[in-house]
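In this supplementary section we document a worked example of the pipeline. Step one takes a protein sequence of length 174 as its only input; no multiple sequence alignment statistics are reported here. Step two produces a three-dimensional model, which step three serialises into structure tokens for compact storage. The input and output of this example are shown verbatim.
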Amino acid sequence: MRITTPQEFLEWPVPEEMTEYPSMDLKCLRDTVERTLPNIETYLNFHNFKALGPGAEPISATVKLGIARLEWLLDEAREDISELFTQEEFVTMLNCYQGAFLTPWDCHRMEHTVAQFMFIDWEEREESVHADFINRLHGLTTLQRAALADALEVGWQSAGQGFDALVDMNVVFR
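The serialised model returned by step three reads:
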């Protein structure tokens, strides 16, 4: 398939005979990306500059530049979340999300999802022994939430290596 528009770029080229995915993780990632298509389409449509011409190369270059900017932002936000959580709290979040790839909506609701996972009623969270943890999650900025989601995904996918991958990303525990 020859890609000429952002919409064609977003279509999944899946052979008809492919009924199973190589892994459940890939299927989960693909499902998550499907739920974020409006965000991706908006970005690609804003950056669909006529001067670049049609085709896959301008779209690919635009996506790569967007990824570079994202990594720059996440790197800055990792400094902010580093030493904000204990290893025990991070493991609680890992257990809560169980390797899920987090959408922007998931990031927006982190404190509610974790509180629910810990059987903490949102209205009574201040009385919980975990109030400080939940309040730190609640106080995260949008960018810090994105960095935490990224760290949770890396932490889950690199399980068995300890937290070396997180240390490499400059995410350390208190």
